[in-house]
Specification:
With 654 residues, the protein is an alpha/beta fold. It is built from 20 helices and 14 strands. The chain has helices at residues 9-15, 24-47, 57-67, 69-88, 93-124, 130-135, 142-151, 154-184, 192-212, 223-233, 301-305, 323-332, 343-346, 355-360, 379-384, 416-427, 462-487, 520-523, 549-557, 628-653; strands at residues 276-282, 310-317, 365-370, 390-392, 435-440, 494-500, 505-506, 512-513, 524-530, 538-545, 578-583, 589-594, 597-602, 607-612. A hairpin with a 2-residue loop joins strand 12 and strand 13. The relative contact order is 0.12.
C-alpha cells in the first residue's frame, strides 16, 4: 500500500525558493537607513558635540541618537514618497531604476544641506528659512555672508565627499546583506513589522524626551523641512520692511528725533535725598511667579514685606525673550536689533548713551555685578563700552571658581548671596560719590540652581518647584541687600529697581523655557521700584518695556534723558501705552501690546493671534478672526516700528 509522505516544514523551506529583495524599492529602503546613519553624527555636531562623541558611547550615544529623531522622521517621509512612486511604476523597471538614482542624488544633496546647517545654526541660531533670508536682506547682512561662506568652504566639500561615500557604501552594503539574509533565512522577512513598531516608538519617545528637557528646537529640526515649510507659509505673509504703512513711528522715535511742539510733563515723585540707584535684574522671571503680581507659591516673601515702600508697575515687557537683547534695552533705552544677531557681539562699541555714561557726567561711580559669566555673547565687551567703572562676574569674585556648573560653560556661576556681598563691599569702598549698580542674577536660569534644603512649594511640576527654590534664594539675597543698606543708613538714599530680564514657561501654551515665543509667560516681567521716600505701596497700570527703564530713572533723579534713548519715563504724559516685542529663535514672531489688547504675528506661518488681556490674562482665546480692522491696525504699527528700527540701527552701526 502506497503511503503518501508529507513534506516537513524544513523541506518546504529548503525546496521552495524564496525570492530575495531585488526591487529598486528595497534598495531605496536600504539607502534610507544609511542616510539616517549619516545624519546622526551631523545632528550631533549641530547640537554641540564634536565628531568624536562616539568615543564615550555610555555618556553620549543615547542623547545623540535621540537628538536625530526629526531627521529620521524627515527621511521616513521622504522615503515613503519615493516608495509610493516605485509602487506606481511597478511594471516599469527602467523607470524604477531612474527613481532610485534620483533618490540617491537627492539624498546626497540633503546630507550636504544638513552638513551646511552645522555652521548656519552656529552663526544664526537656527536653520536657514525664507523669513530669515527676507529679514537679512537676502544674504546681504554680515551674519548671512559669513554663514554661507563658512558652509561653502573646502572643509565642507571634504566632509560632504566623505559622507556621500559612506552613504553609498553603507546603503549598498545593507541592501546586499538584506538579500543574503532573506535567501538564507526566509523568515527574517517577518522582522519588518516589529522594526516599524520600534521606529514609531523611537520617534514618539525621542520627541517626548527632547521637549520635556527643553532642548532647543531650532537645533533639532531638519533644515530641509524648515526651509520648505517656511517657503510655503510665507506666500502671502506681510513684508514688514517694505509695506506701506500710514502709521508714523512716533512712539519709538529716539528723543533727539521727536517733535518739540508739545512739552511732556511728569508725575514722578522726587526727593533730593534719593541719589543712588541699584537695578536688581532677576534672570528668567515673569511677573506671574511673583507674589506681588498674584502668585500663590510664596517664593518672594522679601518683596512682599517691602510692598509698603514700593511701587508695583503692571504691564512691563522684555522686547525679546533673551538676556543680551534686554541688556541693550535696559542700559541704553533702545529697542534691540531685530535680528538673530546681538549688539553685544556685532558692535559692543555701539555709539549710544547708557545710564552709567550719563550718570558719570554727574559725578557718579558705577559697577556691574553678574552671578555668572560675562564672556557669554561678549557681554563683558559690551559693558566695558557703557561707562562702567567696575565689572565683576564669578571669574573675579572670591577664588574665581564657579559654585554652580553646567554642561554649558556660560552657565557656570555663583549664588546670589555671594554677588550681593560683593556689591556691598564695593558700595562701602567709597562714600564720596553717589553710585549706580546693575546686578544680574543667574540661579533662576535653566537648569535652575538651588542652595540649602529644597522647599516644597506644592506645584505639580518638579522643574517648576526647583525654579521656585532658586527664585526664593534670589529673593533672600535681595532681602539681605535691603537690610544691609538700611543698617548702613543708605537705604533711604537708594532707589532699588527689581525687574525680570524676560520670562520662563513651564508648560503654558505647550512650551518650556523662554526663547521661542512671546506669550505673557515669555516676556511680561515684574518691575518694582523700592524707596520709602518716593513710594508707599502704589500700583501703576503702565504699558511699557525695557526701553522705558533708563528714562524713568532719569525722571526720578531729575536728569535729562539722552538723545539716543527711545523710551519714555513711566511717569511721562506723552506715553502711548504701547510696546513692541519679537522673537527670532524658533518661529519668527512679532508682537505689540496696545492697552489691554495684545497682538502676535507669527511671520513663519503667517498667523495672527489677538488677546484681550483684561478678560483673558492667560491668552487662552484667540479673537483675531473677529477683529480684522484691529489686526490690520496692529500690522501697520508693527511695520512702522520694524522699518524705523532698521533705519535707526543702520545709522548707529555706520
Amino acid at each position: 500500500m502506497h503511503q503518501e509522505v508529507k513534506p516537513s516544514d524544513s523541506a518546504i523551506e529548503t525546496d521552495v525558493p524564496v525570492k530575495p529583495p531585488t526591487s529598486w524599492g528595497w534598495r531605496i529602503v536600504a539607502f534610507a537607513v544609511a542616510m539616517c546613519v549619516c545624519l546622526v553624527p551631523i545632528r550631533a555636531r549641530v547640537v554641540g558635540w564634536d565628531w568624536f562623541w562616539w568615543l564615550e558611547p555610555r555618556t553620549n550615544a543615547a542623547k545623540v541618537i535621540v537628538s536625530a529623531c526629526y531627521d529620521v522622521l524627515f527621511v521616513a517621509g521622504f522615503t515613503l514618497f519615493f516608495l509610493g512612486l516605485v509602487a506606481l511604476l511597478r511594471k516599469k523597471p527602467r523607470a524604477q531604476k531612474r527613481l532610485f538614482y534620483a533618490y540617491l542624488a537627492l539624498a546626497i544633496l540633503i546630507v550636504g544641506f544638513c552638513i551646511a546647517n552645522i555652521d548656519i545654526v552656529t552663526m544664526l541660531s537656527r536653520p536657514l528659512n525664507y523669513q530669515w533670508l527676507y529679514y537679512s536682506g537676502f544674504l546681504m547682512s554680515r551674519d548671512a555672508r559669513d554663514a554661507m561662506k563658512s558652509s561653502g568652504s573646502g572643509g565642507f566639500i571634504v566632509t560632504l565627499a566623505w559622507f556621500a561615500l559612506m552613504l553609498i557604501l553603507l546603503g549598498e552594503g545593507l541592501f546586499q546583506a538584506a538579500r543574503w539574509s532573506v535567501r538564507r533565512y526566509p523568515r527574517v522577512r517577518f522582522a519588518l513589522v516589529p522594526m516599524l513598531v520600534l521606529l514609531v516608538a523611537y520617534l514618539a519617545y525621542s520627541n517626548y524626551w527632547l521637549t520635556t528637557r527643553l532642548w532647543p528646537m531650532q537645533k533639532l529640526v531638519n533644515p530641509v523641512w524648515a526651509l520648505g515649510e517656511s517657503l510655503v507659509e510665507s506666500m502671502d505673509a506681510p513684508e514688514l520692511y517694505t509695506m506701506k504703512t500710514p502709521v508714523a513711528p512716533d512712539d519709538v522715535r529716539a528723543l533727539g528725533e521727536r517733535s518739540a511742539t508739545t512739552q511732556a510733563t511728569s508725575s514722578a515723585p522726587h526727593d533730593p535725598a534719593v541719589k543712588n540707584v541699584i537695578v536688581y535684574v532677576i534672570e528668567s522671571l515673569p511677573a506671574e511667579y511673583v507674589d506681588l503680581y498674584g502668585a500663590s507659591a510664596g517664593a518672594t516673601p522679601n518683596l512682599m514685606r517691602l510692598k509698603p515702600h514700593s511701587a508695583i508697575i503692571d504691564g512691563i515687557y522684555a522686547h525679546a525673550p533673551a538676556t543680551t537683547k534686554t541688556m541693550e534695552s535696559l542700559l541704553c533705552s533702545i529697542y534691540p536689533l531685530i535680528s538673530y544677531r546681538t549688539i553685544t557681539q556685532e558692535r559692543p562699541d555701539l555709539p549710544v548713551a547708557s545710564i552709567p555714561s550719563e550718570l558719570k557726567t554727574l559725578g557718579y561711580r558705577s559697577a556691574f555685578f553678574s552671578s555668572n559669566d560675562l564672556s557669554f555673547q561678549n557681554c563683558g565687551g559690551f559693558l566695558k563700552n557703557r561707562g562702567f567703572d567696575y565689572l565683576e562676574d564669578y571669574h573675579n569674585r572670591g577664588n574665581g571658581k564657579p559654585q554652580f556648573t553646567s554642561e554649558w560653560s556660560y552657565l557656570h556661576g555663583t549664588d546670589e548671596m555671594s554677588t550681593v556681598k560683593s556689591m556691598l563691599q564695593w558700595i562701602n569702598g567709597d562714600s564720596s560719590q553717589p553710585f549706580f549698580i546693575m546686578s544680574w542674577t543667574m540661579m533662576t536660569h535653566y537648569p535652575y540652581y538651588t542652595v540649602g534644603p529644597a522647599i516644597d512649594f506644592h506645584v505639580t511640576e518638579p522643574k517648576f518647584n526647583k525654579y521656585l527654590n532658586a527664585l526664593h534664594a534670589e529673593d533672600a539675597a535681595l532681602g539681605f541687600l535691603i537690610d544691609s543698606l538700611k543698617e548702613k543708613g543708605q537705604l533711604d538714599s537708594t532707589l532699588v529697581i527689581v525687574i525680570g530680564d524676560h520670562g520662563e514657561a513651564f508648560g503654558q501654551h505647550d512650551q518650556w523655557g523662554h526663547g521661542a515665543w512671546i506669550y505673557e509667560e515669555n516676556i511680561r516681567v515684574p518691575m518694582i521700584l523700592i524707596n520709602s521716600k518716593l513710594f508707599h505701596g502704589e500700583r501703576y497700570r503702565k504699558i511699557g518695556g525695557m526701553v522705558d527703564v533708563a528714562p524713568t530713572i532719569a525722571d526720578l533723579l531729575q536728569f535729562k534723558s539722552a538723545d539716543t534713548w527711545q523710551g519714555r519715563s513711566l511717569f511721562a504724559s506723552d506715553r502711548t501705552n504701547r510696546v513692541y516685542f519679537f522673537a527670532p529663535w524658533s518661529d519668527l514672531m512679532f508682537g505689540m501690546r496696545d492697552g489691554d489688547m495684545k497682538y502676535i504675528l507669527n511671520a513663519s506661518h503667517n498667523r495672527w493671534e489677538m488677546y484681550d488681556l483684561a478678560n483673558d490674562p492667560h491668552e487662552t482665546k484667540n479673537i483675531a478672526a473677529a477683529h480684522h480692522n484691529d489686526v490690520a491696525n496692529a500690522l501697520n504699527h508693527i511695520a512702522a516700528w520694524v522699518q524705523y528700527q532698521k533705519s535707526f540701527h543702520e545709522r548707529l552701526l555706520k
